Amino acid sequence: METNTDQHIAVPVGVTLDRYIMHNQNAFSFATGELSQLLRDIALAGKIINREINRAGLIDITGGFGTNNVQGEAQQKLDVVANIRFIRALINGGEVCGIISEEEDDIIHTGNNQSKYVVAIDPLDGSSNIDVNVSIGTIFSIYRRVSPLGEKPTIEDFLQGGDKQVAAGYILYGSSTILVYTTGNGVAGFTYDFSLGEFILSHANIRSPQDGKIFSYNEGNYNSYESFVREYLIECRKRSYSARYIGSLVGDFHRNLLKGGIYLYPPTTKDPKGKLRLLYECFPLAMIAEQAGAKATNGFQRILEVEPVSLHQRAPLYIGSETMVNELMNLI
Ligand SMILES: O=P(O)(O)OC[C@H]1O[C@](O)(COP(=O)(O)O)[C@@H](O)[C@@H]1O
Ligand SMILES: [Mg+2]
Ligand SMILES: [Mg+2]
């Protein structure tokens, strides 16, 4: 029977997410169960969104919603559905006092002001792939609030910095549905078993290969990249590395995390500060990456050290196997 021995509590592959959360909670004498319940609420929202995605074409939730989000991006119907489902699950769960979302301009006050946690989410990642049956995802990041209990959360609760995340993760809706998360003690993955309606531990203690042969970026932006990025991509081609780009950050990140590879979204003419959002795309994936032995940088510093100054701030992202990220950084 395979067990994980590293930093985690030894948990056999095949146990449910619930049981795994309990095992990990018991490891911390100060744990009160609120974070555990919050992780369960996120998993529940993931199951609901998974169901909506699977039957999207049957219940007319494909295509545009006719509105733009705060980033000026056209919202897809599933962006809006996923956003509503997540917010509802977190409010009903009662463990969260505030939420920020890619699809909402400002902080969502849940009314649960006695709760300790705030959550930042990208309800549906890979929006351009929604209607064409290509893997998409959800990304989440959790902080313990710094504002006083009993009061409404404030922007400071969300701008604490990447190293202050108490948990982070994503759900990948692909050929199978998998939830991957960390609470700062390694990374584990849970595959959704439809027949049981349960997330089951399938990837205990994920470690990313030190090096890789896969590189992921949008070739269409190549001409607007800085010279060090183009130099690195030329080197990858010279070495006949595999170019793989789904166009869903979660999907590209997950593949490279398991197989070894690097994902690059540098500044472009269209997005001179980078395209991806620091609080609910870069920070959570950077925490996962580092916990799995990989690296994440904005080109100049660890992503987790980038100072957050606004809710929907963007950042360049270079994330993946340690050797590959180091090689890229050595070209600056
Ligand atoms: O189409 P582009 O410019 O390559 O951008 C693709 C990237 O943008 C994203 O779709 C942005 O995320 P959202 O879909 O959540 O807005 C990433 O998932 C993806 O990696
Ligand atoms: Mg996204
Ligand atoms: Mg999104």
Automatic annotation (TrEMBL):
Biological process annotations from GO: fructose 1,6-bisphosphate metabolic process; fructose 6-phosphate metabolic process; fructose metabolic process; gluconeogenesis; sucrose biosynthetic process
Q: Where does Mg(2+) 1 bind?
A: 102, 122, 124
Check the record and name the CDD domains matching this protein. FBPase
Annotated GO MF terms: fructose 1,6-bisphosphate 1-phosphatase activity; magnesium ion binding
GO CC aspect terms: cytosol
Catalyzes what?
beta-D-fructose 1,6-bisphosphate + H2O = beta-D-fructose 6-phosphate + phosphate
Highest taxon of the lineage: Bacteria
Q: Where is the Fructose-1-6-bisphosphatase class I N-terminal domain?
A: 16-203
The alphabetical list of record keywords is: Carbohydrate metabolism, Cytoplasm, Hydrolase, Magnesium, Metal-binding
Q: Which Gene3D superfamilies match?
A: 3.40.190.80, Fructose-1,6-Bisphosphatase, subunit A, domain 1
Domain Fructose-1-6-bisphosphatase class 1 C-terminal positions: 209-330
InterPro entries per the UniProt record, alphabetical: FBPase_C_dom, FBPase_class-1, FBPase_N, FBPtase, Fructose_bisphosphatase_AS
Give the matching NCBIfam families: PRK09293.1-1
Could you describe the subunit structure of this protein?
A: Homotetramer.
Family indicated by similarity: Belongs to the FBPase class 1 family.
Q: What is this protein called?
A: Fructose-1,6-bisphosphatase class 1
Organism annotation: Runella aurantiaca
Its organism's taxonomic lineage begins at: Bacteria, Pseudomonadati, Bacteroidota, Cytophagia, Cytophagales
